[in-house]
Structures are given as structure tokens and as C-alpha cells.
Backbone:
């Protein structure tokens, strides 16, 4: 039974409200601006914010269907902080009417953008971007364009240059914090928490649409020997090289994570087991051929895969798929390592 997280839904509603007002503000700026080059910047900002509004609406729909996991450790605290930001946005926009002064409109926009750089919003972007939504990259592009506009007009208002610099610093700090929550720092892949949070919407979709999904478990062969022979720094390089092979070997729609130590996990939606075989073999060959060049030590990887349907109990069915993939990983080790073994039953 799916449980709707009302607090998370409230958080997303606040994010939607903030970005919707930002969109309306930038539309107004563009309409009333007499400087055509600046008006074009406002039109682009409005377009970006419209994309964010669509993003939050989709996120809210997922949340109201009970298809989002608990993203924050303390959702009530996050909700309270965002409510304060929401009120600040209200106060900022309530009495502003000096649209003829570019420096003033840019200063107001700076305040809006800094509100939207709250680390909670960055964490939401990072969570959804794990599924390759492109939202984080899109927001980074939006912010870059806005910072360039601040710098362009810095000659007429020196304070704008300082604002641009502070906005860049704030973004980098909050992005780093959000990445630490879901991303493994050594490999750049999702960590274990990030992986399971990220696959939740996709298992829900698979259940509704009766889609087949697959899990691939991978483990670096003889990793202790690599550490003992070449040292732990080289061992870390091998882990990073394998992660790179995995990232390069999967599709944009697949989700990969570092499961722990030298073990990795991949989630895929597939039509048939051949897709799983192709991806697994591509990863295996890449590790075998390129690990020594990339890490200074030759490495191989064993992989186990399982295919099945997500039925009525998402967590149970996903856990069963992982267990079956792990069994096949152990079988791959028994067969001599550096190979792939698959579970090919039609249903779990």
C-alpha cells in the first residue's frame, strides 16, 4: 500500500509557488523593459522558470500518488524553512514597481534567484536528476545566464558584480551539499541511499504500466589482491575506473549506483533479456580492456542480472530482483569470474 507523504507534497507546492511567481515576475520585467538586450534576458529567464514550474507540477503528481520516497531527514524542518522563503518572496514582490531601472530589476531578480538556491531545492533537483531528467543541468544553465546578465550591467552598478560573485558561491556551496546527500564522492555515481530513492518513481511506473525491469549487480574481481599489491590509492582508482565504465555503458534511462565497497548496482527498464546481456557485456569488456590504462592496475568485473515484473508490492519485488541478481553474481564468481550470469525467468 502506497503512503502519501503530505509534508513532502507541501514542500513541493511551496517550490511550485516560488517558481510560478518568479516566472510571472520575469514576464512582467520583459514586458516593461525598454532595454531590448535586457528584455531578452528576462524572456529567457521566464522561459526557464516555466520549465521549472512544469517540473514541480510533475513532482507534485508523483508525490500525491505516493510514488516519492522520503528525501529529507527532517521534512517538517525543510517545510518550515521554505515557508519562510515563500513569505520573503511575497514581501519582495509586493511593492516593487521601479521597472525602468535595470539595476533595480536585476537586484530584485538576484534576491529571487538566491531564494531559489536554498539547499533543499538543490537537493530536490539532485534527487530527480538521478533519473537523468536534466533538471539540474537546466537550472545551472539558467543561473549562468542570469549571472552573465549581472556582470554585463556591473559597469552601471558596481554592486551587481559583487552580487554575481556571491550568487555563484552560494550555488556551488549548495550544489556540493546536495550532491553529498545522494552521490558517492569517489565514483560520482549514486550512493546506496541515492540509488534506492531514485528508483522509487520508476518501480511505481513499472507497476502501473506492467513493464519489465532488470537489476544488474557487479563486483570487482580480486579487489583485495589489487589493494594489497598496488595500494589503496590504486584501489580507489580502479573503483573510479569501473564506475566510469558503468556510466559509459548504460543508457540515459538507466540508474547506476555504488552499492558498497567494490560492488555496484544498475536498474533498467527493458523489453527483453537481450538488453541486459548487451549492457552487462559492454561493461565487462570495457573494464577488462581499459582498467589498466585508467587506473594503473588491470581489473575485471563479474556481473549478475535478473529480469522480472514489479507486481503489487514494489519494495518486496525489487528486493527479490536484487537478491536474484546477487545470486547470479555469486554464480559468476564460481564460474571463474570476469563473466556475466543472468536470471531469465519471465516473472519473479
Residues:
Amino acid at each position: 500500500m502506497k503512503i502519501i507523504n503530505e509534508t513532502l507534497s507541501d514542500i513541493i507546492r511551496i517550490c511550485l509557488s516560488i517558481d510560478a511567481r518568479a516566472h510571472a515576475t520575469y514576464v512582467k520585467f520583459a514586458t516593461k523593459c525598454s532595454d531590448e538586450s535586457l528584455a531578452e534576458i528576462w524572456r529567457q529567464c521566464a522561459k526557464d522558470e516555466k520549465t521549472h514550474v512544469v517540473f514541480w507540477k510533475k513532482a507534485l503528481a508523483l508525490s500525491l500518488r505516493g510514488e516519492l520516497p522520503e528525501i529529507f531527514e527532517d521534512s517538517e524542518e525543510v517545510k518550515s524553512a521554505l515557508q519562510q522563503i515563500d513569505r520573503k518572496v511575497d514581501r519582495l514582490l509586493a511593492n516593487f514597481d521601479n521597472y525602468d531601472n535595470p539595476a533595480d530589476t536585476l537586484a530584485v531578480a538576484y534576491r529571487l534567484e538566491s531564494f531559489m538556491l536554498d539547499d533543499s531545492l538543490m537537493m530536490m533537483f539532485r534527487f530527480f536528476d538521478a533519473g537523468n531528467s536534466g533538471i539540474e543541468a537546466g537550472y545551472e544553465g539558467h543561473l549562468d545566464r542570469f549571472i552573465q546578465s549581472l556582470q554585463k550591467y556591473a559597469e552601471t552598478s558596481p554592486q551587481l558584480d559583487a552580487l554575481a560573485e556571491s550568487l555563484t558561491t552560494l550555488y556551488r556551496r549548495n550544489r556540493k551539499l546536495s550532491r553529498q546527500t545522494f552521490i558517492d564522492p569517489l565514483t560520482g555515481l549514486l550512493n546506496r541511499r541515492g540509488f534506492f530513492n531514485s528508483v522509487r518513481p520508476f518501480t511505481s511506473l513499472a507497476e502501473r504500466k506492467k513493464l519489465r525491469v532488470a537489476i544488474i549487480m557487479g563486483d570487482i574481481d580480486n579487489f583485495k589482491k589489487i589493494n594489497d599489491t598496488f595500494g589503496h590509492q590504486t584501489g580507489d582508482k580502479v573503483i573510479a575506473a569501473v564506475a566510469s565504465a558503468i556510466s559509459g555503458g548504460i543508457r540515459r534511462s538507466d540508474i547506476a549506483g555504488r552499492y558498497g565497497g567494490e560492488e555496484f548496482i544498475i536498474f533498467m527498464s527493458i523489453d527483453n533479456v537481450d538488453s541486459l546481456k548487451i549492457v552487462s557485456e559492454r561493461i565487462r569488456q570495457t573494464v577488462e580492456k581499459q582498467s589498466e590504462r585508467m587506473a594503473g592496475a588491470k581489473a575485471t568485473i563479474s556481473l549478475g542480472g535478473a529480469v522480472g515484473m514489479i507486481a503489487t508490492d514494489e519494495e518486496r519485488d525489487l528486493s527479490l530482483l536484487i537478491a536474484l541478481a546477487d545470486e547470479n553474481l555469486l554464480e559468476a564468481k564460481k564460474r571463474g569470474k570476469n563473466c556475466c550470469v543472468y536470471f531469465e525467468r519471465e516473472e519473479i
